[in-house]
Amino acid sequence: MSHMCSRRVIASLLVLVLIAALCFGCAKKAEEEMVITIGEMTDLTGPASPAIISLHYALEHMVKYYNEEGLIPGVKFDIVSWDTKYDPARDLPGYDWVRERGAELIVAVPPPTGVALKSFADIDKFPIVSLSTNMPMLEPPGWIFAMSNPHFMMMKTFLKWISEEDPDFPTDRPAKIGLVGWSEPAIIEDHRAVAEYCQDHPDKFEYVCHYIVPFGTLSWSGEVEKLKDCDYIEAKGFPTGAIINEFINKGYRTNSKGIFDVGTAASYRGFLVDQCGWERLDGLLTPNMSLMWNEPTPLVNLAKELLHTYQPDKAKEWIYAGLAYVGGILNLVATFQILEQAIEEVGAENFDGQAFYDAAIKYKTGGPLWEGYPSGWGFSETKRYLADHVAIYQFSAEAEDLVWIGGWVPLVLE
What we know:
Blueprint: H1 3-32, E1 34-42, H2 49-69, E2 75-83, H3 91-100, E3 103-108, H4 111-124, E4 128-130, H5 135-138, E5 144-146, H6 151-165, E6 175-182, H7 185-200, E7 205-213, H8 221-227, E8 232-235, H9 240-249, E9 259-260, H10 269-276, H11 278-281, E10 285-288, H12 298-310, H13 315-321, H14 324-346, H15 353-360, E11 389-396, E12 401-410
Parallel strand pairs: 1-2, 1-3, 3-4, 4-5, 6-7, 6-8, 8-9
Antiparallel strand pairs: 10-11, 11-12
Helix pairs in contact: 2-12, 2-14, 6-7, 9-10, 12-14, 14-15
């Protein structure tokens, strides 16, 4: 063999060794950075976006936190987001869209989304984490894991609480109660709960009337006129401020005493204050499963830390806005703890929807991060909602904040 030929052979061998080394390095890097994609379905631009846009960033911040801190060694998270525009017609296309882009689970925010997707998720055995909860998501127990209280149970819990704890509750007759808002799953579930609870407790409540009107309705004069004599009125979701203003402008109330919103108003705090002002909102009651920004608990402190680290320019605005971001961090802490558990059990390379499902049905809250919350919230083979208690808050003009009334109230299950 000539010297020239030998040099060519040696050069070729060196090239092969270099290629092999590079391939090994790429494989090692890929192994070190196993990517799990989370699909997000939320309202980014529609009517619910003022209350829930910060939840989109809560998910982004949680992903950054886990990725940058290396909290699950060898795993990185990615997000693909779909804007539902709060339009149920966009839910199924969004479900397909995020899955086509590699999502191995979905975080769904708006109440209608989990309801619309339940049957598809159950058939496909695809896990969905819903940050809002309605009974149709839960029955029969399937592949949707809801990270808050069911509205149906929360409403009954609240009615029991006001009949026992509200000093203004009538003592010589049943309290008259009514309900008004846009037609959507949460208020329909609230209506069913009110109707059942009043039927079961006729000595406590009389259900006067309910007005569930087409989505997008803006005028409330007729509904307010018919509800004016009620002791308690649920004004639900986005229209709450306009309904409160209508009551007060007509002279039927001087503030929001006797008005409530189950599970929603705390997320609309800034929106409501801008619409109505604190004096008009004074007395408005709202039960939630998350503590507000003014409670010094580890989860609240984590929310503040993430917000000030990743979105400091928005911190003041989103804290003013209300519950959404801090409540979303609570939901996402539970979600990522389930992810950690699933990856620990099967390995990052074997993670899939089934691994998440298997970990979720065993998940229970507890440990230092959950200090200030009741221990043992979680899922089971048959239970698909996380929280078993509510914290009841009241809008206070004096404090210019939401004030927690009492301790944790156990859910009424039937």
